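User: I want to check something. If I give you two sequences, will you return the structure for each one separately, not as a complex?

Assistant: Yes, each is folded on its own. Here is the first sequence with its structure:
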Amino acid sequence: MPRHFGIIGYPLVHSFSPAYFKKKFATLGIDAVYEPYPIAAVDAFPALLANHPGIEGLNVTIPYKESIIPFLDEMDGTALEIGAVNCISITDGKTKGYNTDVTGFELSLIPLLAHQHTQALILGSGGSSRAVAYVLKQLGIAFQKVSRYIQDSCLTYDELTPAIIEQHKLIVNTTPTGQYPDTHHAPPIPYDGIGPHHLLYDLVYNPDETLFLLRGKERGAVIKNGFEMLQLQADASWQIWTNQPTV
């Protein structure tokens, strides 16, 4: 019998993970399947587990990285501190939440960092932004979150100025803005504050170069999309599910 894994979120039409794990299983000769489980509300999670008792592990994506937590039996320390989960292990019916976005983001970001990347803007305030903030804190990079809504400790997009953009040489987009099929949108920041010393990192991976990244590239910035991060977080999830080194 094949082993069963999957991903929950809504919607999951363009999810990266099913194709990635299908290829991984085929390459490694692993008898396993990885299925998308789109659930329209997070409170459908217990029923999903009841209807699929063989599932050993799940990834979690938008919009449930935070709201899934009350439904879990246990939390890894890092995920608990972040307050967001993107990986669940299931053993003997017990669920435990982890955050492998941290691993993926950190390993893909570090090679790009330069001496000027001491201050960052995090665009967005959802579950992915929490993982990004955790990594930046661990790396000693000061950061400021930016949100569409007025929140404590967040700037709004209306408050951003070219001077603020110029001051923050690392800008990370954690929102789905610009993701396929809405490729003609970009976070509403003053791009004229961006220059060659900037690093723009977009967690979106489809398209390869979002409008956010293209506008930064036009002004000489170093750019990075979220594809490598997704690969690394997926491999970290696999390591958790199997207690084996990533491949």
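And separately, the second sequence with its own structure:
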Amino acid sequence: MRLSEAGELRLLRELERRGLVSGQDAEGALLDQQRVATLDLLAEGIHFRVDWTSFRDLGYKAAAVNLSDLAALGAEPEALLVGLGAPHDARLADVIYLYEGLNEPGVAILGGDTTRTSNWSISVTALGRSDRVPGRAGARPGDVLVVSGPLGASAAGRYALEQGLEGFEDLVEAHRRPPLRIDEGKALARLAQAMVDISDGIGSDAGRIAERSGCKIVLDVGAIPRAPRIEDVADLRFWAMGEDYELLAALAPEDVEASGFPVVGRVEEGSGVEPALPGWDSFALERSG
């Protein structure tokens, strides 16, 4: 079986079954009672194109996607480690712009590595501290799902770039520069039974909670907040496609009002996610919509 057939989640399940990886119950590694770490890799042609994105924006996004995982861990960021793969003929100025973007969120870069590669790639490890990590495994029937913000802007912005559509600069900007939800993550972590960031799509990421918690998640599709103007780009479910980097949390019903976030679903007995929604899989041959 090839990875394009297995998909990312099946790969991770198989590695875990064989005892080759662990720690799949959270968005990152819990190193001790408070210290946490995350890692994300961005590859040219898969996650970004340099003709679409400035190097400064690329650096910012590379930092932001890792800080989103820290947010889902309820963590305060402490440091970044950066691994950079760059073509041998890359301009020094472009690498500097990239590191300026990496520094924009205000989290210190304390080390890393560089190497020559055929195409650009950026691997960032983010370190932080969390007083309470909700993880993915704590959701229970009766819990309510909330989301930290509107979905779909990033996927719509990417589509506009792919199709050469003009007039959607706000959506393109959302694709290039994801939101930072550190404060929201720390606030939700005090209440949440389980929490993930929405990087692969609300259906796919809700599925991570359902699988690890041993429950069924029912999404109220009509209640999911959508970013403005995504319906003007195309008649596609951009709100389900991922790269939003908002937070999805399962809360006890009595905590929902205090959270202040919109309700988008509930947790029930059973398994899986209803309705089934498309999402992003790193090993799929093309992005689903």
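Because they were folded independently, the notes below concern the second chain alone. The first strand starts at residue 29 and ends at 30. Residues 55-72 form the longest helix (18 residues).
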